[in-house]
Specification:
Length: 431
């Protein structure tokens, strides 16, 4: 298998061009994400907070805007109000007068009396809207992964190979590949086989421990996409999913190519491109905690490729008391606006907005979502705390898993998730 040029993105300019301007992006953001447990009880997975001030969907949206793809549809379904509110507040700066927009596309039973039945059906049910914008290319994205990618480079590769469909791919350990669509390619990187979530993934030739998997990022020639969505819709045996139905069928009959993520990843090295599926509590905790390290794998301080979001107006973080037994301090941590650390110690933790840690508490290796109030003398270790929790005075979590399991959710890796309802606190409003 020949390897194409794979210099890191930082050596190249952005690929904003006629290609990106003639592209419409569709972000599929309707999934629940059940493996995140209580974090998705009241919101869709793309709306889950991440990184201190962002939502997961901000990464796909920012990649679009930074790449010059500024005609964007966001397809929603499951408990979408939190996501819709976030996009309305934080993503209203695109100007329709210049044919730039973010359009919300909730499940509306537009074509028949069913909700979205699969990823392909979600696009099919918005076919009239796609046609009205008359794009040359349609970029299909998931709204639930953390990564930085120049879609312009992806589009350039798609045009250069004269592909009908291009699938972005990344290498993962074979042991993890069963969760993805696994592909095989020839020397020109044309896909010759595609299997959705196979029990026994095929490794990359010469690399028995790695498999080439789909990132759920597709570029279609627009008219080609329309024809095959209609064909799939009429197929009674289809589950109407890109990975299960459409792509395996197209591999046999069309020009379908793979695009290596190394060619378009941003602010990373070619041998370690950053792409995370934070779909479990363990993965979510780990990706957030990694941001507190000295040099994290994901650079949120990159001015050349910023991550945009809704920016709430808040006062600076505040640290009070400096006595030997009562010192407000945060070490190797990220602390967002509106937080008050009052006579307590925070280590290796990430605090979202408006978190208050009251005196004599110790917080270690924790991810604390917005508007959490932690009472005095609390001791918390390896904990994820959902938004709006009020942590009782003296609560100890993270030191005795058997005891923690009586009240909270504890993962296989020993991370504890605390949600308001687990504390007998109920919030009957959209978050």
């Amino acid at each position: 298998m020949e390897t194409p040029q794979t210099e890191p993105f930082s050596h190249h300019p952005r690929f904003v061009s006629k290609l990106t301007r003639n592209t419409l992006a569709l972000i599929l953001a309707g999934g629940r994400g059940t493996r995140l447990k209580n974090l998705t009880d009241w919101r869709a997975k793309p709306a889950v907070p991440f990184g201190g001030k962002f939502r997961i969907i901000d990464f796909a949206l920012s990649n679009c805007v930074n790449s010059g793809v500024r005609r964007i549809g966001v397809v929603t379904q499951y408990k979408a109000q939190s996501l819709i509110r976030h996009i309305q507040r934080g993503w209203s700066f695109l100007d329709g007068r210049f044919k730039e927009f973010i359009e919300l596309l909730p499940a509306q039973q537009r074509t028949e009396e069913t909700w979205y039945q699969g990823t392909a059906d979600a696009v099919f049910q918005n076919l009239d809207i796609l046609r009205s914008h008359n794009p040359q290319y349609v970029l299909i994205l998931g709204g639930d992964h953390i990564y930085k990618m120049d879609y312009g480079r992806l589009l350039a590769d798609h045009a250069e190979t004269q592909a009908d469909l291009t699938v972005a791919c990344i290498e993962v350990p074979v042991s993890e590949a069963s969760a993805f669509g696994v592909m095989a390619v020839d020397k020109d990187w044309r896909i010759v086989n595609f299997s959705e979530k196979p029990e026994n993934p095929t490794p990359i030739p010469g690399q028995s421990d790695k498999a080439l998997v789909s990132m759920g990022i597709y570029v279609f020639n627009a008219r080609f996409l329309y024809d095959h969505l209609i064909e799939d819709h009429d197929a009674n045996a289809s589950s109407h999913d890109f990975g299960r139905d459409i792509i395996p069928r197209l591999v046999e009959s069309a020009q379908v190519y793979a695009h290596r993520f190394q060619r378009s990843c941003v602010s990373t090295t070619p041998d370690a491109p950053y792409w995370r599926d934070v779909g479990t509590v363990d993965a979510y905790w780990e990706a957030n905690i990694d941001l507190t390290t000295i040099t994290p794998d994901l650079n949120l301080y990159d001015e050349d490729w910023p991550i945009w979001t809704y920016q709430e107006q808040l006062p600076p973080a505040k640290f009070v008391f400096d006595d030997d037994s009562r010192r407000g301090q945060a070490l190797d941590s990220m602390v967002s606006g509106g937080c008050i650390i009052s006579g307590s110690t925070v280590r290796r933790s990430l605090l979202f907005s408006n978190v208050q840690v009251r005196s004599f508490s110790t917080i270690e290796d924790c991810v604390i979502l917005p508007n959490v109030d932690i009472g005095r003398h609390a001791r918390l270790r390896r904990v994820v705390i959902e938004k709006n929790c009020v942590i009782p005075e003296g609560l100890v979590v993270g030191f005795d898993a058997d005891e923690d399991k009586k009240r909270f959710y504890v993962t296989q890796e020993g991370v504890t998730l605390i949600a308001p309802e687990m504390l007998g606190q109920f919030y009957h409003y959209v978050r």
